[in-house]
Amino acid sequence: TGGPVFDQTKLNWLNGQYLRALDSTQYTEQLKGWMLNESKLSQLIPLVQERAERLSDLLPLVGYLLGNLPELTEADFEHKSLERAEVLKVLHHTLAAFDEMRDWQRHELFSTCQALATTLDLKFRDFLFPLFIATSGRAVSLPLFDSWIFLGTNLSRARLRSALDSLGVSNKERKRLDKEYQVLHPALDAARAGSN
User: Fold this and answer.
1) Most CB atoms within 10 A, among 30, 35, 98, 172?
2) Cβ–Cβ under 8 Å, residues 147 and 136
3) Is 82 helix (H, G, I), strand (E, B) or coil?
């Protein structure tokens, strides 16, 4: 699937240079803007308020939304009902569909995933499993579609790309998956139209 590719190591280095050049007051303001961003915080509250017993429960619930995921391995994606090939299709085809999306809304994300699950002849719950792992690093987390809205299009897609990388997808496999996606595209469009 397409999309921009950045040298993450170089970007991290550049960001580190920027942060170290700030004086302590500027650094504090940057940190407050990032940690206490009222807009982002107001998006998180509905996701966590009913799930937390104590305020100290919040960070474990939302950590994957605020920071990086731990490194994922192929073992993280093992599932009783899915073969590796199916996991690859779910991740790749979802990423390809997301790359085509112009409207990053919860209902669009849901209908796209539902149509893909139908097209791939997978139970919706099984279809979502690798997406939960790719997004949160866990099989159970905050609602997936709300998590994608919070993360935004770029970070959500980056997590799916990273998941494919962690599964060791070769260039040959990617090309095969690209071709498979193009073949199922008309059926996916029909399934999406049927769900609207």
Assistant:
1) 98
2) yes
3) strand
- The tokens for 175 are 């090309």
> Terminus-to-terminus CA distance in the chain, angstroms?
26
The tens-digit pLDDT sequence of the chain (196 residues) is: 455 566 778 888 888 899 899 999 998 888 777 766 788 788 888 888 888 888 888 888 888 988 888 899 999 999 999 999 999 999 999 999 999 998 899 999 999 999 999 999 999 999 999 999 999 999 989 999 999 999 999 999 999 999 999 999 999 999 999 999 999 988 888 877 876 6
DSSP symbols for 117-133: HHHTT--HHHHHHHHHH
Residues 131/98, Cβ–Cβ less than 8 Å? no
The token duo for 180 is 């498979």
Non-local CB neighbours of 6 within 8 Å, separated by 6+ positions: none
pLDDT in tens, 160-181: 999 999 999 999 999 999 999 9
Please name every residue paired with 79 in a beta bridge, in sequence order, or none if there are none.
82
Cα gap 186→188, rounded to integer Å: 5
Pick from 184, 181, 145, 159: nearest CA to 1: 181
Alpha-carbon gap, residue 36 to 6, rounded angstroms: 28
